[in-house]
Input
Amino acid sequence: MTAAAASTLLVPSGEIELEGNLDVPQDATGVVLFAHGSGSSRHSPRNTFVARKLNEERLATLLIDLLTPEEDANYETRFDIELLTRRLAGAARTLAREPRTARLGLGLFGASTGAAAVLRVASGMPEAVSAIVSRGGRPDLAGEQALKRVKAPALFIVGGRDFRVIELNEQAFVQLDCVKQLAIVQGATHLFEERGALDEVARLAARWFARHLTPQR
Output
C-alpha cells in the first residue's frame, strides 16, 4: 500500500470556512468523513488513531471541525444537531467534488453528538452515503424519523462499561430499517481508553467500511 497523501481541505459553510485534514492513499477504496463529538476536534487522539488505521486499510479519511473554537466553547452549540448536520452535509458534498475522492464510496464515522449528525446526513442523502459507524455515539439524538429513513449499513460501537450509552444505542438501533450491527467492546468505558479498546474500534470500523464501501462509477 502507498502511504496516504495528507493535505488541508477547506469546506465553505455560510460566512465561514471549515478546515479539515484529508489523507488519501493512492490506492484508496473509499473515503471516511469523521464527525467529532462535543468538545472534540480533528486533532482528537482517538479519532486520529482510528483514521491512521483506516488509511493503512486503503481508506481515505477527512477529519474536520464542524464548529469554530468560539462555537465549541458554548456547551449548547455542541448539541445543535441541525447545525452539525448542515455542516457535515456540506463536507460530504465537498468530497463529492474533490477530484481525489469523487469516485470513492463515502462512509461516515461519528462520535458522541457527531453520530446524530452522521445519521441525519445519511437519512437526507441516501444516494451519497454508503456506510456508517458510530463510536460511543448518541444516535438517539438523530430523532426517530431520521433513524427510520437511514438506508446505509450502520455499525454502532459502544464500550461494555458505558452503560447509559449502551441503553441509548439500543433504543436507536431498533428504529433502524437497514443492515445494522451493535458491537460491544467488553471492558471499555466511554472514551475507549483501556488497553486494546481503541484498536478493537479501529478493527471493527475498518472491516465494516471495507465491506460496504465501493468506488462510484
